[in-house]
Every structure is written in C-alpha cells, then in structure tokens.
Design a protein that fits this description.
The chain is 31% helix and 14% strand. The protein is α+β, with helices and mostly antiparallel strands. The radius of gyration is 37 Å and the shape is elongated. Residues 15-20 have low confidence and may be disordered. This is Cytochrome bc1 complex Rieske iron-sulfur subunit.
Length: 352
C-alpha cells in the first residue's frame, strides 16, 4: 500500500491554534482577527517518495557546489593569467577571470539554492502564532526558546536526512578552499630581493631627464638631479619595479658644509648620491632647499638633512636615507662604487 493511499498517517502533528479562526468584532476590539488561512500540506509531507526526490535534489545541488569549488581551484592553478577566450556575445575576455567567476558563482548559487529547496520542501512550513513579549527574557522564555530550537532541529530532519547533511557539510567545508588558494599571490617570499638594487660597481649615473650619463661637471652646487643606473630603460617591462629601488637624488654641497664624515668619504668633490625613496612609506622625494640642504618628502613631510648623513630631522620617517658611494671613471663620468649597504625605502618585516 503506497503512502498516498493513507496520507493521514504521514501528516505532521498539528501545533498552535486552529487555522482560519475569526474573532468577532465588538466595541473594545473593533477589528476582527482574520486568523490564519487553512494550512495546505505539501506533497513531500504526504508522500515519502516525493520527500526522497527533494532530498536527492538538495544533495545534487550541494554536490555541484563542491565540484564547482574544485573547478575554481583547478582553474586558478592551470589557466595562465594572460590567456584569453572568445565568449559570445561578450568577445575576447580573460579566460582565467571568466573561469573563476563562473565556478565561484555556481558554487555559491548551488549552496543557496540547495538551502532554499531544503527549507521549502522538507522543513516544516506551518505558521505558528506567538504573542508579543517584553524585551527582557525571563527564565521561562529562555526555556521556551531552547524548546523551540530543539523542535526546529527535529523538524528540519537534519539527523534523519543523512544524505543532505553529509553533502551540505561537504559543500560548506570545501567552499572556503577557494579563498585559501588565493594566498598563492602573497608569495613567494621576497627573500633578499628588497636588500639589493640595480646598482653595481662601475654602473654609470644616468640623468633621468636627458637619459645621458652624468659628468661631475654637470652637477653644480645647490642643484638637485635625479639619476638612474646605466642600462635601465623606461620601455623595460620591470622598469617601475626597478626604479622604485634605484632612483637617486644627486646633490652637490660644498665639502666644508658636509657634517657627516662617511658622507664626505662616499661623495666626490661634494657630490652626494642618496636614495630618492622616502623611508616612511616609499614616496619619491622631490623637494630640496639648497640653503639648509634639507630634502622634503611631499607625502607626509618627512625632512632629511642631506649635509648630515640624510638623518631625519622632522616627520614620521623611521631612519635616514641610504647613501650610494660614488666616484668618477677615467672619462669623468660619475659611477657607482657598489650597491647600497642597507635596504632602500621603508622598513619591512624581515629586515633586521
């Protein structure tokens, strides 16, 4: 005998007040209470076969979500970032972005659709009437809340519908892995890359405005010139990355005005070379006051004394600007005598 021949056996127990009850209006209560409409049972409440079909549908949605999450991770690992694909009618777009968007959207949609279908077809759909209560929660209310929670947990059939429970937990557990794989873009660790620049012994100092090597005679007292290492060109694919470490300020100061002994030794006839990158947050320093020999960062007003080892005299910068040791070659061109002896720019977590 099928479950549809005796549907009353499978109906859930009735709770709360009777449906459709209508109170009578009187002088004290002029508006009649229409009550709740008669409750209509769903086919899943009557036929266990229909409930099983709904259970399999929900499980299928959660399973598709898991597969979509695996597809997201696979796309992120296997598709090259420069690869494009033609998608009608959009045209040529990034294959990686399209794959990530589709798989991530499908994973989220299936989790949501599975939860909605579960709630609409398998969880209890009876409307319960509860009178308003004061804001405070007396002990009896807390007891009632816990009882209602236990009843809701029982009616959700989470313990009985093991297939739904297993696939739901699987989908929810697997989906966060989509974010975990994104941690790959935080690496690899910089290692010693931040400790070295493009400057080497014998590298000529090239004027960034004229793109010509600098002679000592080109730098006048009180002037400010920006330089880059020989061989670094603007059309290079990594130019912005390299210039963020290699950019120099070239200043000529009267040797008698230089207070720091090492600065004087590392200069050439008063020509000193300091990193242009501020040691606060890495802004390019571009302001120089020739009377005081102070260099000012325009971002947060960190001020450095270029006549005294570029020490910080004002502002949030944490340490002095690194100095590059320079000299001249046989042709009179300024050249580096090595790399910076300390990392340029702001401090970083593994600097010690």
């Amino acid at each position: 005998m099928s479950s549809q021949e005796n549907p009353e056996e499978n109906l859930p127990a009735q709770h709360g007040t009777a449906h459709g009850a209508v109170s009578v209006a009187d002088e004290k209560h002029p508006f009649a209470d229409p009550g709740l409409p008669p409750h209509e049972h769903r086919v899943q409440d009557i036929d266990e076969r229909a409930a099983k079909r709904s259970e399999r549908t929900v499980a299928l949605l959660f399973t598709v979500s898991m597969l979509a999450t695996v597809g997201f991770i696979a796309s992120y690992v296997t598709i090259d970032i420069d690869q494009s694909a033609y998608i009608w009618p959009i045209g040529h777009i990034s294959a990686l972005n399209f794959a990530l968007g589709c798989t991530l959207g499908l994973a989220l949609f299936c989790i949501g659709a599975g939860a909605v279908h579960w709630a609409r077809t398998l969880m209890s759909d009876e409307e319960l009437v509860d009178e308003r209560h004061p804001i405070e929660a007396p002990p009896e209310v807390k007891t009632k809340v816990m009882a209602d929670f236990a009843q809701g947990a029982k009616e959700s059939a989470l313990g009985r519908r093991k297939l739904i429970r297993t696939t739901m937990f699987g989908a929810l557990a697997l989906f966060p892995l989509s974010g975990v794989v994104l941690l790959r873009d935080l690496g690899p660790l910089p290692g010693t890359v931040l400790r070295h620049t493009g400057w080497r012994k014998g590298k000529l100092l090239v004027n960034m405005n004229t793109n010509e090597p600098l002679r000592a005679s080109d730098v006048t007292v009180g002037s400010l010139t920006f330089a880059k290492p020989e061989g670094l060109e603007e059309h290079d694919h990594d130019f912005q990355t390299q210039i963020a470490k290699d950019a120099l300020m070239i200043i000529r100061i009267q040797p008698d005005d230089i207070k720091d002994k090492r600065e004087l030794e590392w200069s050439h006839e008063g020509i000193v070379a300091y990193s242009k990158i501020c040691t606060h947050v890495g802004c390019p320093i571009s302001l120089y006051e020739q009377q005081t020999h102070h260099a000012l960062c325009p971002c947060h007003q960190s001020t450095f004394d270029l006549a005294d080892g570029a020490r910080v005299i004002f502002g949030p910068a944490g340490h002095a600007l690194p100095q590059l040791r320079i000299g001249v070659n046989d042709e009179g061109y300024l050249e580096a005598l090595g790399d910076f002896e300390e990392p340029v720019g702001p401090a970083f977590w593994e600097r010690g």
